[in-house]
Amino acid sequence: MLRELETDFETDREATVAGGADERTVGPPTRQPPAASAPPPAAANPGTDATASHSAGTPATSVAPAGSPRSAPPAGGTFAALRVPNYRRFMTGQIISMCGTWMQTIALGWLVLSLGASGTMLGVVTAAQFLPVLLVGAYGGLVADRANTRALLITTASLQATLAAVLGVLVITHVVALWMVVVFAALLGLTQAADNPARQSFVQEMVGPETLPNAVTLNSVTMNAARVVGPAIAGLLITLIGTGTCFLLNALSFAAVIVALIRLDRAALRPKPRLTKAPGQIREGFHYAVRTAGIRIPLMMMVITGTLAYEFQVTLPLVARETFHGTAATYSLLTGAMGAGAGAVVGGLLVARRRLTGVRSLVVIAAVFGVLILATAAAPSLPLVVGALVLTGAASVAFISTGNATVQLSSEPRMRGRVMALWSIAFIGTTPVGGPIAGTVAQALGARAGLVLAGVAALVSAAIGLASLRRADAARPVSAAARPTPSSG
């Protein structure tokens, strides 16, 4: 079955809307934008696909067929998006900021454990951070559709910098308590509820729909490169100084993003059309996503993997401490391995060059992702776990990038902010449910059990995605030309 799918990797067509405006992009932890006002029609790929089918009466968005061949690499090759000056400036600031964010991620997990908390409590803190995304993430998408994206991103970056600075001071002055960490996580989650859909949709404002898949993947590669640098610095700082310095440096790193946003050439942006305030717009976005197969199926898959597979911030600290009796440096090594260049970066660059999108591609990648997580859980030694995590990181980049691009290219420009908010909810907002589950399983059955749960979840999502795709294919109307001609007489 996988072999059948592997020969059928697809690339979705860019969304085309008559007289439409910019497209937006979304995806897990990278910034991506809406399309420009009146983008050029996307090049048509042969055939139509269930991944983009809409119910009757819904404006059609062209997306490559589920079985369509891979498209040629985008103009400019693997690094096409970097030819855009605004994108280049933004990504420079983003790299610095993401290094700081990963430093904070490592420090936060280690701070919770150093305050005497259990694996379950670590899951609770993680849930507190992402619960706002689940509860108000849809409103964040609506704000992203209505607001000036650049101004909104400057605001959210400033708020996140302030929160990091405050927690850093509390830690350094030895005033911090566990309840303060929970409050910090919740406030951070509130800012991310608005920040995630806005920054994901902002990428398309910089590069346009033609280069969007490439930009989305390069964003993921950037995040994983930061995943190497940030944890490495954090492990060293925590060992030598303590966790407080990591929070302060993260606060400082947001200055790079803010400066980059201020220095963008606004005349070269492709600003999205502002959504006029009207009742029922959140409900409209949800219904649109449900009836569009190219959005619905990736969202279902991400809900499953986002809930139970992407809980590495819970399982990896426990693997480091409980399984290998390590320190913060061990935890940093494991986290960095998932973003190591040998796997994640190379895998991401391959996706960037091939522009893999579509549900079939996503199903295959999810299955590979699940197998690699299970291999990580079964690895008997620290070096083998590190090696398995490198490959797991590559599959993770491919899964996030492919799902992100598929959802965005299946969406109409006017719906993209709300659709991408649903993607963020599926990816990040499910953590309040999955975090405590993963933490409890790992605490009760061992840290490796949390990884087994993650691997099984990814495989289940692949199976559900495949079944849903086949149902969508079966429900697709047969064209008149393909119908058998009735016999005469």
Automatic annotation (TrEMBL):
Residues 62-74 have a biased composition (Low complexity). It is a multi-pass membrane protein. Residues 30-43 have a biased composition (Pro residues). Residues 1-74 are annotated as: Disordered. InterPro entries: MFS_dom (IPR020846), MFS_trans_sf (IPR036259), TM_effector (IPR010290). The keyword Transmembrane helix applies. GO terms for molecular function: transmembrane transporter activity. Keywords: Cell membrane, Membrane, Transmembrane, Transmembrane helix, Transport. Signal peptide: none annotated. Residues 1-25 have a biased composition (Basic and acidic residues). Gene3D superfamilies: MFS general substrate transporter like domains. Pfam families: MFS_3. It is found in: Cell membrane. Residues 78-473 form the Major facilitator superfamily (MFS) profile domain. The chain crosses the membrane at residues 95-115, 121-142, 163-188, 232-264, 285-310, 330-352, 359-379, 385-407, 419-439, 445-469. GO terms for cellular component: plasma membrane. This is Major facilitator superfamily MFS_1. It comes from Pseudofrankia inefficax (strain DSM 45817 / CECT 9037 / DDB 130130 / EuI1c). The lineage of its organism: Bacteria, Bacillati, Actinomycetota, Actinomycetes, Frankiales.
